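Bumping with the actual sequence this time:
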Amino acid sequence: MYLTGADIVIECLKEQGVDMVFGYPGGAILNVYDALYQHSDEIKHILTSHEQGAAHAADGYARATGKVGVCFATSGPGATNLVTGIATAYMDSIPIVAITCNVGVSLLGKDSFQEVDITGITMPITKHNYIVKDVDSLAGTIRKAFQIARSGRPGPVLIDIPKDVTANKAEYIKEEIRPFMPDGEQILEEEIDQAVAMIEEAEQPYIFVGGGAVLSDASEELMEFVNKVDAPVTDSLMGKGAFPGTDERYTGMLGMHGTKTSNFGVSECDLLIVLGARFSDRVTGNTQTFAKHAKILQFDVDPAEMNKNVLITAGVTGDIREALKKVNRKLSRQSHPDWMEKIREYKQQYPMKYHPEGLTGPFVVEEIYRQTKGDALIVTEVGQHQMWAAQYYRYSRPRTFLTSGGLGTMGYGLGASLGAKMGCPEKTVVNIAGDGCFRMNMNEIATAARYQIPVIEVVINNHVLGMVRQWQNLFYGQRYSATVLNDGVDFAKLAEAMGAVGIRVTTQEEFREAFADALKSDQPVLIDCQIDSDDKVWPMVAPGAAISDAFDEDDLKNK
């Protein structure tokens, strides 16, 4: 049958099983929105307050559900407003398809109204991108885009479609899209055999879990693997939930704000087994001293990550889940009682702790954990509150901690929480934010209110840019340059003005009551938590230092 390009876009989305789109209309994309109108009972569209919010919502939807997230934007500023969200997804390997429309083909390259070369702009931050100038190739391009977004190492793909292409007609033949299944046959058996041999030789192994284990849905295989290896487990910010944070072998996060147990243990192990992590500078600290006593065995779907930031001993290239299946079949059960006892002693010696009095970020996170019984979907912005959410909420399942790890995008969380809630309506969704982050995309509270999306927005409000201030306090002689936000903005009243519930709290008891009420509400709720400006994230590693040099408040006092 012959359809317009706009209709082909919608039909191809239906082929891919898309039932949710986040976006913002405009002149160039009007044909697509008109076609979407005819299928509003099949594909729900969420009109965000800003295109960046749409990109973050598509990202949150993808992280929470494991599906490909989709966002729409018009030409020019509409398309460029997606860029930060696309870059966020790219850095964390999140599968989204961004569909933008441009001026007509004849107007391209002529500085036409609201024209921008969005494929050129996004080339460094997409797995692939397209500009479709012929309607006959539109359906095939959309299908390829979805395949690229979800296969191998996932990531964002952008499709730019000139307006006249959305109006032109072409023959459309429906295709049945087969579910994507990772191919384990591509994994080399000699790499598996080498990995097994290294594990069986090790006396002090440590397992480091990254976001790749979450993206490959490898939790079940990972649990079997950990039990076979008999090793402690640490994770990156992106790896949370792949291995249960409640398990006795779990030692907390690794790196700049990781636990002393994990940082000391990795510094002393003789084999570091890395599952889907890319050795970010926030994890490794000084790469010359990172895991200096260990052989490093890296599992990753992307061979480009091998020997990129840290030199490894051996690697297994392939999907984490499929690789672990192969290793588990060949690996004999190991036992390392002395090593595990040493790690247990570290855990007892260096527990996570904070000041028990007053309202603090750690208290808020622990109270959220207690009231949600560890079963919420936690989203964060970026900064101190993000680290506290990583440290003090124990994630027992994957896809329950959504955060911008690689790009560190302030303003990410609120849009992402809307996407997560739309993808997982049965889950309690909490966005933990800082006051600086909330200011960046607070307009999405209006989106939550418009659609009555009952997310809980918890703002850890210290009236400063907390993480930057922490660095200024510790490393810049307490010169607080451009980090003080102590003005008259009332976040609770702002939330109320946008149609949500707003609550301001200053004590532990007030927060307990406010959060309990929020859990029972069927409306979006914002809780503004007033905390001290100088609360800090502990432990920490100074920039460029070895992770074995992790220090906390007590260490500073005892200097």
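The tokens above came from a reply further down the thread. The domain at 2-171 is CATH 3.40.50.970 (Rossmann fold).
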